């Protein structure tokens, strides 16, 4: 029975063994194409970058790490901003993406058209979302301020807010843009997940008199746990590494108020010609990302073993 | 007229005065590579040109026309144009330099120091000397292509200082005399106040709060001997940090007062990069703006209706004296890894030197060659003549040309400038922070002259 | 095999029930429309701005409809730029990356989903590291490699570069969906004497259609939108993609916003049309392919 079969009493370990009774080679034949391809394409650059992190003007050592973790005030600032940016982006994307997916998964006139239209924010080439949102938030000819004038939020003589030009709102504005940009990714993943939920369970629950909220809580949410975990992880990685939106909208400003790790790596690699330090920041970014990644791998392995 | 001629003569001589690198290249090695005519090499050659200029309006069309003419005159050479958006040139150059696959002719929009950092440019000193080109460039323009060791790594395509552009129609509307633009800082502030009308979305003065903040140097420089970012002691090679000198602080305080006290600058000034400022001026959202000679045509291409409605005046100074300004140039270089150095140099010489007068006369981007100054279309142009006058006393800031860490340091200054503009720090604190960051980056190559706390 | 299954949930089972459904549908449509308006506003702004003159795009006060309607921006971008070529380049690269990426991801994702084996944790961690490695740091090494192997300015160079992040992305998604399919199905096939590969191909893959559709959409759009690799690995018009072409309108001295917006619209509308056209194939899985146990 569908997704809920994971909850059936059949022990997982036994299942896995029954699937591969003889040949231990099968799993490797399945996973190797992907792993080998990535290894061929990435082992060298990653190894190279790792080596670079130990190189500096003064020779080999941990200088770059000391510099990043102790001396560089921008790196400290960027870690905090990157976490906020990723956290609020993912929360926003998940809530919005789930909501839209729920609406679109049921019966709805023009459903096919809705589905395509809700994907639109994600169809724009990289630099476009940043440009459009920078423009919406612009303090001089931004459409947001114009709208606030028209609804009477501003008096005629008020000086409009420079959303991207003040430290308190700049990062928030980039998060809004990133939520807009990224929620279709969540939507498409969760929508596919919702289709796999066994509808007979809803039927049964309805007959038992469970209301919509309880059906959602007791049936939908548990069934969506796995795909949600993956979707959140992938969105987290994407937001953590996001470069285009921040670079185009604020370039890390004003006064470093929206400086994130990705813009810092970019500046060191391409504007300051400091490849060693850029690699160090990149490796640190990777390590930070491996925290949720590691949890995911552990959870997966566990669920296979339990 | 005679005044202008006199000025021109002085301009041609200033090279000796600024003479940062006098008498380099005097020892001319006797190499045959450039002595032999390039035409001898057989077979057609394709040169890769990396540029952002062909993407600009209206300069791009004139540049394309020049390239087509070159190909016609040199049937053995084809120019393959690689257009790169302005913001991404350095990204591509870095990748090309690391991959040892540099284009033959490269746009140096990011400044000479990056060429040096990446070892991306071919030393063309000998070629320039062999053809006697050093003398035919305006010295202050050529200097932008000469590194700290006196090597010529690039030739200037256009050049300029910043002057004050002002909307004559706005002056008239506000009851101001369009023939009397502000000369002093006080006048600038008063004029800007008279022009400002927030309800109409109009502000008296446009300022660079996001990119190109280097343009605030113009205000520092004219406020006393220690008003600047840094000063290089050529004997010791030590950079003296001046960003927090009393003169610099006073200049920045003046600029911040325009934004915060007088409110004559758009309220979102820290969002305003170069294109935003150009757009705001062209659209009439700001009435005055300082920028280079390229400004005029750029404004007109953005809004054809403002042709004839703006003037250009000398950059305002504290007391109205003739300004001393930094001169900025766009250089082009030959890629270090080129397989066709002769052809590449021939092409470089063609557009930066031989045909530069054509470009300067049509695109109105500042002239770089002495020949261009003789062209009546340039010398008698009401706008360009202002810039030529300013060039007489202009200087090339060594840190922009020679200091490999300048890009990083600039990015330490910008946030402090922004913090002062939005009022999250007072000017003194902000500039002291910038100074200590400069000191950190420079290490023993730099020294603080003024205490940072 | 199960195209009609989900509809049963909405089958009318009584008058009051049907009335409730209709009300529910109405509310849903209202919410969907409201969200859509917010979602599409930037799109509206792009199109409206592309129909203004450059000057009007940044004039104060802001106009919600062009004061002067003009198609100049479109005329200009098609005259000045070879947009058809950029679009087809982006399409070739995105489609190839997607097909290749989804195929490998499905195959390997199945292995990670179904088997417990030695080094599984290590291999998964490796894939995750590969995916999380900051892409911006790969740009230079990839340029060097592409240069060395003659892949600079070729479709293949871009496709390989894109595969490094699109393939792991697809892999995690496929793995997760496979885990939602009951294991009993594979087991039944194995008991019947099928090889694991047959079981994957004949039984599981057809059931994974919703996942394949979703994964293909994700892979395609990720490739379509990419900028950094496209910037550095292409040097001529031959392979230049739409995202790089759009950025080229952002100039040093001026940005012609109406052109940027027209370019953005031109670069997006084809995708919308393709999605509308193929939505049956792409989203069929999403709409109908509920997994039946």
TrEMBL record, chain A:
It is found in: Cell membrane. The chain crosses the membrane at residues 28-51, 83-104, 116-136, 223-245, 277-297. Pfam families: BPD_transp_1. GO terms for biological process: transmembrane transport. GO terms for cellular component: plasma membrane. It is a multi-pass membrane protein. It comes from the Bacteria. Its main location: membrane. Keywords: Cell membrane, Membrane, Transmembrane, Transmembrane helix, Transport. Residues 79-296 form the ABC transmembrane type-1 domain. The keyword Transmembrane applies. Belongs to the binding-protein-dependent transport system permease family. This is ABC transmembrane type-1 domain-containing protein. It comes from uncultured Thermomicrobiales bacterium.
From TrEMBL, chain C:
PROSITE patterns: ABC_TM1. CDD domains: TM_PBP2. Pfam families: BPD_transp_1 (PF00528). Residues 87-278 form the ABC transmembrane type-1 domain. Keywords: Cell membrane, Membrane, Transmembrane, Transmembrane helix, Transport. It is a multi-pass membrane protein. It comes from the Bacteria. GO terms for biological process: transmembrane transport. GO terms for cellular component: plasma membrane. The chain crosses the membrane at residues 27-47, 90-110, 122-143, 155-174, 207-224, 257-278. SUPFAM superfamilies: MetI-like. It is found in: Cell membrane. PANTHER family: INNER MEMBRANE ABC TRANSPORTER PERMEASE PROTEIN YCJP, MALTOSE TRANSPORT SYSTEM PERMEASE-RELATED. Belongs to the binding-protein-dependent transport system permease family. This is ABC transmembrane type-1 domain-containing protein. It comes from uncultured Thermomicrobiales bacterium.
